[in-house]
Specification:
By secondary structure, the chain is α/β, with parallel strands linked by helices. It has 17 helices and 16 strands. A hairpin with a 2-residue loop joins strand 1 and strand 2. Helix 12 packs antiparallel against helix 13. The longest helix has 23 residues.
Length: 519
């Protein structure tokens, strides 16, 4: 009986409290602006009825699909869809969200693969974050920027020696498809291990299998622990492909503003331009050259201008950009490549001819240039790379004439033999970036003529022996080179003596003579 009475008392109190809440509740009318879908195409929608919508505002469609208000016309709005539009139909309602597109940022993103909305794509659970930042952000002001002074080592001999890159620089990687553009970017990311550089790989319009291979390569070389992968594959809507590089840059800027050094790879901006052209044509924007809209230069310039080196008062962080662009039949003067060449601080050009000859990486030294990185290059390179670019370019020109079988003087033959050995030295397998001291030792050996008597098929073996000896026997010289000191005369002599010892097994008769002389 007592239990029934207590239960009745609880119920009475509950209903009394509910009645009081309802009596005290003051309902408020909340206005909600609703639009109507007029038409839908692949990746875009035209909406009417949202007269107060703002530029770049997020709109919500049925099925929780988001879109960006892009064209604000007098009678309708052109919306870029960021999701699957198959279930969106004319006549459906559209709601304003009163916010712009943003992306999660923070340390928890390291090692993860995600899309522009922050959705994880690596089956490792939800991404936890404490902050979101807008995808579209202003680039740093001119007065907030500092000169590029610190090198970004790629670990690739031909680039670090002849086309150096600095932290805060924008260096374009340009070439035809399937000749190693992504391989250079991947090796550069792998080489940043233990260098306190955060790497972001942004895949735009690539095949899912190609993106999966890059991710697998980064994981196999333990590079994912300091990397973030932002993906918009070729199967995604063009709206996602268009907005993805801006989202990846926002993630990079978060770390840069904390004083960190960041490397971002855009792979590639050709597909980004195609996606934007598709959206613009569907939105009936006036087409220009090659059917691209008139602001195609602007969309890339406002993206790449965000790469910079901040002043020490602002943390001193840097954002280095390696945009990739694909050419058709080596046409480097096409619309998009020329636009990007004019925006960036230099380009690394990959030649199909070199690729077909097996000279990898297929970097064309004559067409590649770095307008900033030379000032950041470690001083030790000046002892070996100063005249290397000129002499190598001369060799390439002389080699063309030598094919005609004309008689050559001794100096020309020497130029050819030295140039062929330099070319062999510049060959480098993928996933094998080299530390600075090993590069310096090998380049010093070839420029000083120590490799001149070694057969071409033995050059790789000799270089491998030199690299191993430097790591084992000259740790003090290695530390000075990495510390940014100039190559002293005694260091140079020590390296040359070490090279002679390392390649002695390739000259057995010389080693026997020296041993007999010693005895």
């Amino acid at each position: 009986m007592n239990k029934q009475q207590s239960l009745q008392t609880v119920l009475n109190n509950t209903f009394t409290n509910l009645k009081q809440v309802l009596d005290n509740h003051q309902p408020q009318i909340k206005t909600c602006e609703i639009g109507i879908v007029k038409s839908v195409y692949q990746g875009i929608a035209n909406v009417s009825g949202l007269s107060s919508v703002k530029a770049d505002e997020l709109l919500r469609f049925s099925g929780d699909v988001l879109g960006i208000a892009f064209n604000l016309d007098a009678t309708e709005i052109g919306v870029i869809l960021l999701g699957n539009s198959t279930h969106i139909a004319a006549g459906q309602e559209v709601q304003r969200t009163h916010r712009v597109l943003d992306v999660p940022v923070g340390e928890t993103l390291l090692g993860r693969v995600l899309d522009v909305t922050g959705k994880p794509l690596d089956n490792q659970g939800e991404i936890k974050y404490t902050e979101r930042l807008p995808v579209e952000r202003q680039a740093a002001a001119i007065m907030d920027r500092a000169p590029v002074t610190v090198p970004l080592q790629t670990g690739i001999k031909v680039i670090d020696a002849l086309v150096p890159i600095g932290r805060g620089q924008r260096e374009l990687i340009v070439g035809d498809r399937q000749i190693g553009k992504t391989a250079i970017a991947t090796d550069t990311i792998i080489n940043q291990k233990h260098k306190n550089v955060i790497c972001i790989y942004c895949a735009i319009g690539k095949r899912a299998s190609a993106v999966a291979k890059v991710i697998a390569d980064l994981r196999n070389h333990n590079a994912m622990e300091y990397s973030i992968v932002v993906v918009a594959s070729g199967e995604d809507p063009p709206g996602l492909q268009y907005i993805t590089p801006y989202a990846a840059t926002t993630i990079a800027e978060y770390f840069m503003e904390q004083g960190r050094d960041v490397l971002i790879v855009y792979d590639d901006l050709t597909h980004h331009a195609w996606a934007y052209r598709e959206l613009s044509l569907l939105l009936r924007r006036p087409p220009g050259r090659e059917a691209y809209p008139g602001d195609i230069f602007y969309i890339h310039s406002r993206l790449l201008e965000r790469a910079t080196h901040l002043r020490e008062e602002l943390g001193g962080g840097s954002l280095t950009a390696l945009p990739i662009v694909e050419t058709q039949a080596q046409n480097i003067s096409a619309y998009i490549p020329t636009n990007l060449i004019s925006i960036t601080d230099g380009q690394i050009y990959l030649s199909p001819d070199l690729f077909q000859k097996g000279i990898l990486p297929a970097v064309d030294v004559g067409k590649s240039v770095s307008r900033v990185g030379g000032k950041t290059q470690l001083p030790a390179y000046s002892a070996v790379a100063g005249d290397l670019r000129l002499s190598y370019s001369q060799f390439q020109e002389v080699e063309v004439f030598a094919r005609f079988g004309t008689q050559l003087d001794e100096e020309t033959r020497h130029t050819l033999e030295r140039g062929r050995r330099v070319r062999e030295i510049f060959k480098q397998s993928q996933y094998q970036p080299l530390p600075v001291e090993e590069q310096i030792a090998v380049l010093l050996a070839v420029t000083e003529g120590i490799f001149d008597d070694i057969p071409l098929d033995k050059i790789e073996e000799a270089a491998r022996a030199v690299r191993q000896k430097v790591t084992e026997q000259l740790p003090q010289v290695s530390d000075r080179i990495q510390g940014g000191e100039k190559l002293r005369d005694e260091d140079k002599n020590a390296l040359l003596n070490l090279v002679q010892q390392a390649i002695a097994f390739l000259h057995p008769h010389q080693s026997e003579e020296s041993e007999n002389a010693h005895n």
